[in-house]
Write a structure and sequence with these properties.
This protein has a single domain (28-733), classed as Maltoporin, Chain A, CATH 2.40.170.20. The protein is built from five helices and 39 strands. The chain has a 22-stranded antiparallel beta barrel. The relative contact order is 0.13. It is a multi-pass membrane protein. Residues 9-21 have a biased composition (Pro residues).
Length: 734
């Protein structure tokens, strides 16, 4: 497998060792085969997923460079089964098979990013990964808790960072490559750049790192957003007087990273990594202002920081029981500071700050391929992981007219602690290069502790919960023909309630969300079956799936008489909600797939499509209908890309993203007519791209976004989308 797409660990971006001066001359037949399998400069290398017998896809470094995504979530828009929601211009939350936020797990170089404050529904945390530092992104669709533990109910997002090149050969012991890049966009006034350096010594020590900055202004949208049920303009987002500029957009961002790799020997390697993301002054568009509030109200994320420091020790070609070993030790700090301006007529503002400190470790071991009999081989992967969070949470009111600050109830219980851990194993049995069987299991332990505050104004009950359990999964892949496989998988997923579920108090719409210390873990079972084709001229994957989710956690209303006795905010809210397990089983079903064609003369085409439907027990007992559609399920959606690449380095493409309008229905009215409850507006956004690549010295990319200037809205309550504008990337290397 090529170095770029290797499944194990990070891969280098920089140049590789120079080719021999007199390469072997290929025969005509061999040259034609090389062209058709996509390994020429025009086609680029094919990217293989590390989870080869699952529904999975990969975003390569070339994809990231040529598509010019604004963020890591934005980079996933063209992957099958993935739908990206943005509640603010500086946030993004990928949906994988209808689930997002707490119900999908995010990994960075094998290290878990999910912590105990990930919110119910969409959240902004995948946005804190700088896409400019990534070599590839892999999306694993379907339950994956055997391998990745709690939260992996909808799937897993696996980010692989760029490694130092570790060049060998040449006359000098030292090498160095630098790169400077500048990016600008007219739709939101974006201006930013990055400088990075790749240093190395004798192919044994390498350092890759850089710093980046960008300033993003107000977004000029493609037009008014119309409600799918009324046909009238929606009240959120709020537009300026010109009718196209969206209020509540814009942010500033600073990033820094450094990655040191030391090859102790051919079998041993040590990696030290540092990744820092800092975002400033990012308003949340749907609450700037909220629909029912004065137009001057706004919720700001003044500071959104995430720092990751870790070490990784890799061993290859070890003993039979541990041929490959990877051990990681990590420290993460997530910092969030929010400011809620109550409007021009208000005399006070609400400020909150949360700090999450996470210590983690993971051990992954793979045995060698044991030959059990002729044509029969077995490999076993196994390991353990543990992540421990400590939480600090504060909130205060500032009275602007008198300059007095007073403490108030924090979003979380200050001093809370949370542990998620487990041991796992997975075996793969290969039979005569025709059938591959996979089976595995995990045992988990999750511990949640939170101090109580029984003051009448607060009324928080202490948390002392332990959850243990086991999940498993397996599958079979049958090779029907060369390059054609039929795959079926049955996997379990689970999600233990985290500190956000158990202790959080936060605004939601016109009401307040309150904690529930009695929640139980969600459990999922996913069955998928489908076809994978990898032929010289075509790649295809098409999967149908069904998920059963027990004890799904969702929001339910509670009466004001359940409020803490002296909590005036709770008593004055339009409505109050809490999180609760729904009795019974919820269903999510659908299909997703992608097809890619390799056409003559450097042309290619790729298309994706996904449809998801979900329903579950009515969270309000004894109310018709008995089963209702699940919230936030994306509509039928897909993408189409047509591209062209030339050996001289020129490339061009057009890309279409679309979604069908979707209206959710409730019970029938007195005239037996179905009543629309809400839905998702459809959209069709066309981008045109062109560029030139002179490897490794220069890269120029131009993207004309939203050519048709269409009105646009993301799924659910998300409101931001591309305006019509030109994005430009200029990259120069030395």
């Amino acid at each position: 497998m090529s170095k770029e797409t290797g499944p194990e660990g990070p891969v280098p971006e920089g140049p590789v060792a120079p080719a021999p001066a007199s390469p072997t001359r290929l025969t005509r037949e061999a040259a034609e085969q090389a062209r058709t399998v996509g390994r020429t400069t025009v086609r680029g290398q094919r990217a293989g997923a590390s989870h080869d017998t699952r529904a999975a896809s990969v975003v390569t470094r070339r994809d990231l460079e040529e598509r010019l995504p604004r963020s890591a979530p934005d980079a996933l828009r063209f992957e099958p089964g993935v739908y990206v929601q943005q509640t603010a211009h500086g946030q993004g939350s990928p949906y994988v098979r209808g689930l997002t936020g707490q119900q999908t797990v995010m990994m960075f170089d094998g290290i878990r990013l999910n912590n105990s404050t990930f919110r119910y529904g969409p959240n902004q945390y995948f946005f804190t990964i700088d896409s400019r530092t990534l070599q590839k992104l892999e999306v694993l669709r379907g339950a994956a808790s055997t391998r990745y533990g709690s939260d992996a109910m909808g799937g897993a997002l696996l980010a692989t960072p760029i490694d130092p090149a570790l060049e060998v050969g040449g006359q000098r012991n030292w090498y160095g490559h630098s790169k400077a890049m500048m990016r600008s966009g007219t739709a939101d006034g974006e201006m930013g750049g990055r400088a990075q350096l790749d240093l190395g010594w004798k192919g044994k020590v390498g350092l890759f790192g850089g710093v980046g900055y960008r300033d993003v202004g107000l977004l000029r949208a493609g037009g008014k957003v119309l409600s799918p049920t009324t046909g009238q303009p929606v009240k959120s987002p709020l537009f300026a007087a010109d009718g196209v500029t969206q209020r509540g957009t814009g942010f500033r961002e600073f990033t820094a990273d450094a990655r040191l790799v030391y090859k102790i020997s051919d079998k041993h390697r040590l990696t030290l990594g540092y990744y820092d993301y800092r975002q400033f002054d990012a308003p949340r568009t749907d609450r700037c202002p909220p629909v029912t509030a004065p137009q001057t109200e706004c919720l700001w994320y003044d500071e959104q920081f995430r720092t990751l420091v870790y070490g990784a020790y890799d061993v290859s070609d070890g003993p039979a029981a541990a041929e490959r070993v990877r051990w990681t030790v990590s420290y993460q700090h997530q910092h969030e500071r929010r400011r809620y301006d109550r409007g021009a007529e208000s005399t006070y503002r609400i400020i909150g700050r949360d700090e999450v400190y996470s210590l983690g470790t993971g051990l992954n071991i793979s045995t060698k391929n044991f030959g059990l009999a002729r044509g029969v081989s077995l490999r076993v992967d196994y390991g353990l992981d543990a992540y421990f969070d400590t939480l600090r949470s504060y909130a205060w009111n500032t009275f602007l007219d008198v300059g007095i600050t007073t403490p108030t109830t924090s979003q979380y219980a200050n001093g809370s602690r949370y542990l998620t851990s487990g041991v796992w194993t997975e075996a793969k049995l290969n039979l005569y290069d025709r059938v591959e069987l996979r089976a595995g299991g995990r045992g988990s332990l999750v511990v949640a502790r939170a101090p109580g505050n029984l003051d009448a104004m607060v009324g928080r009950r202490p948390i002392d919960q332990n959850w243990g359990g086991a999940v498993g999964g397996g599958g079979v892949a049958v090779r029907l023909l060369d390059g054609v496989r039929w795959i079926t998988n049955l996997d379990q997923g689970f999600r233990a309630p985290n500190l956000d579920d158990l202790t959080s108090r936060q605004a939601t719409g016109a009401g307040q969300q309150y904690e529930n210390p009695n929640l139980r873990p969600e459990r999922a079972l996913t069955l998928e079956t489908g076809l994978k084709i990898e032929r010289p001229r075509v790649e295809l994957q098409l999967f149908a799936f069904q998920s059963w989710i027990d004890r799904l956690i969702t929001r339910v209303r509670f009466d004001r008489d359940q409020c803490p006795p002296e909590d005036n905010i709770c008593g004055a809210a339009v409505y109050n909600v809490t999180l609760a397990n729904i009795a019974g089983t919820s269903h999510i079903r659908g299909f997703d797939g992608a097809v890619r064609l390799f056409l003559p003369r450097g042309f290619g085409m790729r298309a994706t499509a996904a449809y998801t439907w979900g329903d579950g027990p009515n969270p309000v007992p004894d109310l018709d209908p008995v089963r209702v559609p699940l919230s936030r399920i994306p509509p039928l959606n897909g993408t189409v890309e047509i591209n062209w690449r030339h050996r001289a380095g020129f490339f061009a493409s057009s890309a279409l993203r679309w979604a069908r309008p979707q209206t959710r229905l409730t019970e029938t009215d007195k005239n037996d007519q179905r009543i629309p409850l809400g839905g998702t507006p459809g959209f069709a956004v066309l981008d045109v791209r062109a560029g030139y690549r002179l490897q490794p010295y220069a890269l120029v990319v131009l993207v004309l976004e939203n050519v048709t200037n269409a009105a646009y809205r993301y799924h659910g309550s998300s409101i931001n989308g591309p305006g019509r504008g030109l994005n430009v990337l200029i990259e120069v290397g030395f």
